[in-house]
Design a protein that fits this description.
Layout: H1 2-17, E1 24-26, E2 30-43, E3 65-77, E4 81-89, H2 91-96, E5 107-115, E6 121-130, H3 150-153, E7 158-167, E8 173-180, E9 196-206, E10 209-219, E11 228-239, E12 244-256, E13 264-277, E14 282-293, E15 307-321, E16 324-335, E17 340-342, E18 345-347, E19 349-360
Protein name: Porin
InterPro entries: BBP2 (IPR011486)
Length: about 350
């Protein structure tokens, strides 16, 4: 309770002072910003405990108005030093940080970066950072669709470790190598002494195209149950016209079946997302996705065919102000096996409608 009160006091301090612009600047180096997103979801399967699916970690409550993410952030930026500290609250924090120590469950970011070259944009950053994997983030307003894709929900939102990164002089190339504590972890899993690794390569030939490749290599289990995991995320973002944009993404992973095994369990997820800007206020977006995890590496359904699920959604966005947006999304899942609960029975389908109101300063 004390943590929620502290976060509330910080929100009360930052929000009123920042309303005249997108952020509050102190001098030329420190910037304060804030973000809040309320939501309501109605799930046709009507879960009695209001908790929806155990493979979703955002907007995952039924028939109640709730806070998905409230965030306050301080950023320091100079020529040779940068730092970020961000605190958060909401169901996103509750669901994603359940495995972390109590004192760290409300930390969204805490990292420091040092520039190590006088002439090149070469940095070392360390701490708790946003994930280098994926085409979506926890900040809803920055994503094409209201809710997150199955691929995003079941790959890291954040990571802890150190990163060496380079941005080319023309800004077209970004390259990084990472040493990490694990797969979406601040503290390592008990009994795990392994180091995980990752890479990211982003190419932007112009302001309308972004191509990205990211990876993760490591073991996220205790030493006696060590299983190497290899994961790759690939996506392309395209601004096809002034009004129409599209994103194509494909995630694939492999994990050893048993310790020391040469056989692997595979999972993968293709995604197509599209957005059409109707005018300055209104936008329409859709998504088609598929998630295949037959062996339950990431989503363990406990069914004969595992989790093999199609997803589809359509959302309508309305920009109330330049920093306030209202969104509504209809979304459905259709699975090969009956993996969804409705009235005590297992069903193959799930349909739900979500609305959200987001503001940022």
């Amino acid at each position: 309770m004390k943590k929620y009160i502290a976060i509330g006091m910080l929100l009360g301090v930052f929000f009123p002072k920042a309303q005249s612009s997108d952020s509050l600047k102190i001098g030329n180096k420190v910037t304060f910003s804030a973000y809040a997103e309320l939501f309501y979801t109605y799930d046709a399967n009507e879960p009695g405990n209001h908790l929806r699916q155990n493979f979703l970690y955002s907007y995952n409550r039924h028939n109640e108005v709730n806070l998905n993410l409230g965030l306050i952030k301080a950023n320091y930026q100079s020529e040779n030093l940068r730092a970020n500290v961000a605190l958060m609250a909401g169901t996103y924090a509750q669901d994603n940080m359940a495995a972390e120590q109590d004192a760290l469950r409300y930390v969204n970011e805490a990292n420091i970066g040092i520039k190590i070259s006088k002439n090149k944009n070469l940095w070392i950053d360390a701490g708790i950072m946003p994930s280098h994997i994926g085409w979506e983030s926890a900040i809803g307003k920055d994503n094409i669709n209201l809710t997150r894709s199955l691929a995003a929900e079941n790959s890291p939102y954040f990571e802890t470790g150190a990163k060496l990164s380079y941005t080319s002089d023309n800004g077209k190339w970004f390259l990084s190598g990472l040493v990490l504590n694990g797969w979406q972890r601040i503290a390592k899993a008990e009994g795990n002494q392994s180091i995980s690794f990752g890479h990211q390569v982003t190419y932007k030939p112009n302001d309308k195209i972004t191509l990205n490749s990211s990876s993760f290599i490591g073991n996220d289990k205790a030493k006696e149950d060590k299983k190497m995991r290899y994961f790759h995320d690939l996506f392309g973002s395209f601004q096809l016209t002034d009004q129409f944009s599209a994103l194509l993404g494909f995630d694939i992973g492999a994990e050893q079946k048993t310790k020391g095994s040469e056989q692997y369990n595979i999972w993968y997820s293709p995604n197509v997302q599209m957005k059409y800007q109707l005018d300055q206020k209104w936008a329409l977006a859709g998504r088609f996705e598929y998630y295949n995890d037959k062996k339950g590496v990431i989503i363990n359904s406990g069914t004969p065919n595992g989790f093999q699920t199609f997803g589809y959604s359509l959302n309508l966005d309305y920009a109330i102000l330049k920093n306030v947006i209202f969104r509504t999304e209809a979304r459905g899942f259709t699975s090969k096996d009956a993996v969804f609960v409705k009235n005590g029975e297992m069903k193959q389908g799930n349909f739900f409608v979500t609305t959200s109101l987001a503001a940022w300063f």
